[in-house]
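Progress against Task 2.4 (sequence-to-structure conversion) is shown through the following example record, which the project officer requested during the mid-term review.
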Amino acid sequence: MVALRSSPSRPGFLAIVLVVFFLACYYLAGNSVASAVSADVPRTEERIYLMQTLSDTVVHSSDSDRVLVIMAKAPRLGGVKTRLVPSLSPEAVTDLYCCLLDDTLTLARSLGNVEIAIMCPDSDVDQMRQLAGRAVSVLAQKGEGLAAGLTSVFAHFSAGQPRRTIAFNSDSPHLPRSVLRGAFETLAVHDVVVGPTHDGGYYLVGAKTSHPTLFANDGMGTSSALERLLTRARALELSVDLADPFYDIDVARDLTRLAEELRLAPAKAPRTARWLQQWEFAAAQSRLDTGEL
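Structure tokens generated for the chain above:
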């Protein structure tokens, strides 16, 4: 101990201690500031950040013989889910769509050993790449409209060799994972698989090869879309099997149904569930303020 006190190296030792002390204080202060800043990030920006972070940490194998392609649009005001606008503001619809797309990507990642891609209009590619991150391929469709987008999906992913490819909408993140897995299994024995919706459309369609006329003059968005697709498949002599019927989010009653489902099981689509909870609270508060309750 006497030798330590009289050692000429003591000043150097104290300097090291002080440096370590100040570095520790700086690190803790920096973490506190970062936490405070992140807590103030607006909800939409936070969702975009989460989408980029999650997708950047996942590696998808391009060697997989299964491909799930999400049919999407960039979340611009007035450009998505326009049939909800009478019930929600354009800003709220855009915010909701971000949540639906985010949860849809999470559902897709949960499948495992499935290549994930997004097909969108050419004008939306840059924005969709920012939202989806590096681990998800974002492709521009050829032509306008959903029918052209579906044709582009199978022309692209079935080129060269047959692959079990499923085109999936971006507003059914609450779909059970087992339905998607079953649809891929169906393609092992059938030419086409279709997931019908209760309003006469379909939420997914899958095939192993490209059939250019399958979606011609499809009449998307009408109550006869499913029947038209099945009629053309029969004309092409393709074997078709149906997945479980389900619902997507097009109009206000669909949103009400989704809110009821996610209230009981929010883990099915957690970000959408949180948004709907806030939306219901805000709606109830508005009715209270206007004396409607």
